[in-house]
Structures are given as structure tokens and as C-alpha cells.
């Protein structure tokens, strides 16, 4: 039976959330940027692999979900009088993208698995944030995001099964989640999702 559940090789330190709670406005701005970039990432796979028709519906659904999340975060920002700022480089995502191999098929597998890991880490952190928030509306919002992001992590792994065998997916996924754990451990805590 295929192993579709996305996973991580490490857990976020529970103390991390205090940086978010102490700088929630800055976090919201970063969160909006992350949702926009996640939508663009899914669409970039559509653009680069239009012939992979089996995964196009899932990619489009992920992109739509991320666009909806972006809009929802913008609404929260507007209520707080916040505006988008120019993007800053995301050291977490940039380091993960660097491990993607070259070669059309290898890169597709890596991009799908990297997306799975990013979404799974996001789900884990949204859960931590939801559990730490006192505001009932925000708590519910982040609980809902946690569920959606967890599904996205699984969906990206499922997409890979259309073109790669389970053994290859598992082997490469293990390599990626181990690198991701090293990246997370080396990042400075800041009011950002990653």
C-alpha cells in the first residue's frame, strides 16, 4: 500500500511560537507573502510540466487554496491596518530549492517532495500557533489552515506516484526531510512561518 502521509524528520521547538506571538503583525505580513509564494510555486509546476496532465487538477486546487489563504490573510491584515511589504528572501525555502536536482524528471520529483515538506512544516507550525493563540477568531483561522496545509503535504506526495515508484519516492523523500531538519535547526527564529 502506498505511503502517502507527509512527514518531517524533526519537530519545531515549542518555544518558537513566542517569537510569533510577540511580533504577530510582522508574522501576518510574512504569512501573506508565504501564501502568495505557495500559490506561485504550484502554478510554476503547471507552467514547467503542462504535459503532466494527471497532476494538473491537484496543482490547480492547491494554487486556488493558497490564493484563498492569501486573500484571507490580507483581510486580517486590513483589519489591523497592515499592508504588504516587499518580499525578503526566505532562507528556508531558498535552501530547500537548492537541493532540487537537475534533469526534467528528477527535478519534478524533488519539486513535489520539497513542496510536500514545506506544506507539512507549515501545517505543524500553524497547529502550534493555533494552540498558542488566545483570540478565538485567529485560533479557528489557524486551526483551519493547519488542516488544509497538512492535506497539501499529502497531495504533493500523492502526485509523485503518477510518475515515480514508491521506493524512489521514499528514498528521495527521506533525503529531503533530513536536509530540511538541518535547515530548520540552523535558522534564526524570526516572526515568520519558516
Describe the fold and architecture.
By secondary structure, the protein is mostly helical. The chain has a single domain, classed as Ferritin, CATH 1.20.1260. Helices cover about 70% and strands about 0% of the residues. The two termini are about 30 Å apart. The mean pLDDT is about 95.
- Overall shape: it is globular
Q: Total number of β-strand segments?
A: 0
Secondary structure class reads: mainly alpha
Mean pLDDT: 95
Quick one: CATH superfamily?
Answer: Ferritin, core subunit, four-helix bundle
CATH fold node name: Ferritin
Query: What CATH architecture would you give?
Result: Up-down Bundle
Helix share, percent: over 70%
N-C termini distance? 32 Å
CATH class categorisation: Mainly Alpha
Structure annotation, total helices: 7
Rg on CA atoms, Å: 16 Å
Order of helices and strands: HHHHHHH
How many domains in all? 1
**Fraction of residues in β-strands:** under 5%
Largest sheet: none
Low-confidence stretches: none
Give the SSE map.
Elements: H1 17-22, H2 24-48, H3 56-79, H4 91-98, H5 104-132, H6 136-160, H7 166-186
In short:
The protein is built from 7 helices and no strands.
